């Protein structure tokens, strides 16, 4: 595994969305779906708007692998489940800050879906 470069972090952080393609059981990528992405320090995180019922999220939890594309960055990633309350508090704040202009009807479900937080670890 590697880490994100400063350039990759900045490009993805400033992109509106990220294309997420979780891996199938045979390792091939599923069809990418657009999702919101936030940055916390040197890490990137995503959540499922539909909670654990989200199709892309169920696939991501099954494989813990995927491919992401955002801000001109295209990477294979490991998807690590996040349960730390402190990290999730910061991710809540990051979603409110980055996407607050879309209103509570979009941001509140993202904050409520904190049990679906996945850290994107490049490789």
Describe the structure.
By secondary structure, the chain is α+β, with helices and mostly antiparallel strands. The chain has one domain: Electron Transport, Fmn-binding Protein, Chain A (Pnp Oxidase, Chain A). It has four helices and seven strands, in the order αββββαββααβ. It has a seven-stranded antiparallel beta sheet. This is DUF2255 family protein. Pfam families: DUF2255 (PF10012). It comes from Streptomyces aurantiogriseus.
Task: List its salient traits.
4 helices; 34% helix; UCP028498; Split_barrel_FMN-bd; seven-stranded antiparallel β-sheet; 123 residues; DUF2255 family protein; alpha+beta; 7 strands; globular
Structural topology:
Layout: H1 6-14, E1 18-22, E2 33-35, E3 37-40, E4 43-46, H2 55-63, E5 65-70, E6 73-81, H3 85-99, H4 104-112, E7 118-122
Antiparallel strand pairs: 1-2, 1-5, 3-4, 4-7, 5-6, 6-7
Instruction: State the share of residues found in helices, binned by percent.
Output: 25-40%
Task: Record the strand order, biggest sheet.
Answer: 2-1-5-6-7-4-3
* Main β sheet profile: 7 strands, antiparallel
Number of domains: 1
Give the low-confidence spans.
none
N-C termini distance: 4 Å
Name the CATH architecture. Answer: Roll
CATH class: Mainly Beta
Protein name: DUF2255 family protein
Pfam families: DUF2255
InterPro entries: Split_barrel_FMN-bd, UCP028498
């Amino acid at each position: 595994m590697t880490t994100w470069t400063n350039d990759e972090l900045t490009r993805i952080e400033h992109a509106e969305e990220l294309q997420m393609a979780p891996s199938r059981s045979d390792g091939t990528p599923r069809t990418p779906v657009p999702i919101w992405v936030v940055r916390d320090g040197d890490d990137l995180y995503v959540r499922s708007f539909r909670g654990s019922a989200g199709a892309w999220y169920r696939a991501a939890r099954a494989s813990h692998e995927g491919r992401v594309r955002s801000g001109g960055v295209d990477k294979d990633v490991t998807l690590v489940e996040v349960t730390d309350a402190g990290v999730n508090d910061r991710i809540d704040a990051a979603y409110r800050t980055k996407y607050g202009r879309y209103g509570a009807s979009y941001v509140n479900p993202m904050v409520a879906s904190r049990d679906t937080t996945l850290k994107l670890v490049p490789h």
